[in-house]
Amino acid sequence: MKDFPAKSSSLIMLMRKVPGKDSMKNLVRIPLFALIVTALLFTPAPQKGATVSTRDKASALQYDDPYADFRNVRYSNAGLLSESEELKLGAQLHREVTKKFNLTDAGLARVDRIGQRCARSSLRANLTYKFHVIQSREINGFSIPGGHIYITTALLRLANDNELGSVLCHEVGHLVARHSLKTLKKSREYDDIANSLGELTGVAGSIARDLGVALGKMGGALMLTVHTRDEEREADFLGVRSMPGAGLDPAGMITMFQKLVRIEETNSDPLGSLFSDHPDAQERIDNTRYEIARMKRR
């Protein structure tokens, strides 16, 4: 079995001038008390019932909020591949994944049970999600368009149910936000892929081969699992927000990060390229703690 490529990972940045001494001599001396009274007289009185503006309140609430940019986002396939095209693409990409990695049924029942709970509590519950387990010594997880989510056997051995759920909710978050579709939209091969998907009725034949060629040029399925740090933050946000609805303790996301940090400090080999394109682990722990505290207040 091939190892994960170097860049494949998903889971799991007024001072005013004072007059000189000579000019000060010419100033009229005004008692301090008179200055205070004058200031009070000429300061406009607040209107009865006046309150702080909504914008000011929002600014105050969002100050130091690590997830402020994601709170009011509405997600859809608008401007991207349609959902039917996304499903066709997912089927083709899954075939590519099965050629690169050894899929196993070991632990699959557990992954599917927890993963489906994560999916139902997400902001894209209507999508059909398919969970898979990859036989690998690397601790990793990733998702591709069309609802396919992959977890390695090494990660299964490491994580308890809440921690595994945090990874699965995070990966569902990538699908909710259509991160891979946005990456695809920016690629030079987008038009060729979109045209092939429009004509594709199955996963065989010359059109499917053309689609495979176009995907090969852009790096294939695993190219779509590489996300920006802001996308990783967004998936963390969507993931931790959906965990309570899935019957999971959101603190599992914190302990998952902490386990990965301890492994990295002793032997980073099992992590492979995991988190190479992710925000700093301590930042993610702090952000998750912030969001859990915020959820408890509401």
Architecture overview:
- There is one protein chain.
- This protein has 298 residues and is mostly helical.
- The protein has one domain (76-297).
- Helices cover 52% and strands 5% of the residues.
- It contains 13 helices and 4 strands.
- It has helices at 21-25, 32-42, 54-62, 83-100, 108-120, 153-158, 161-176, 179-185, 190-199, 206-217, 229-242, 251-266, 281-297; strands at residues 103-104, 130-134, 141-144, 148-152.
- A 4-stranded mixed beta sheet has the order 1-2-4-3, with helices on both faces.
- The longest helix has 18 residues, at 83-100.
- The two termini are 47 Å apart.
Keywords:
298 residues, mainly alpha, 4-stranded mixed sheet
SSE-based structural type: mainly alpha
Mean pLDDT comes to 78
Shape: globular
Q: Write down the Rg.
A: 26 Å
The portion of residues forming beta strands comes to 5-15%
Helix coverage percent: 40-55%
The description of the largest β-sheet is: 4 strands, mixed
- Total individual domains: 1
How are helices and strands ordered from N to C? HHHHEHEEEHHHHHHHH
Instruction: State the total count of DSSP E strands.
Output: 4
- Output the number of helix runs: 13
Task: List the strand order in the largest sheet.
Answer: 1-2-4-3
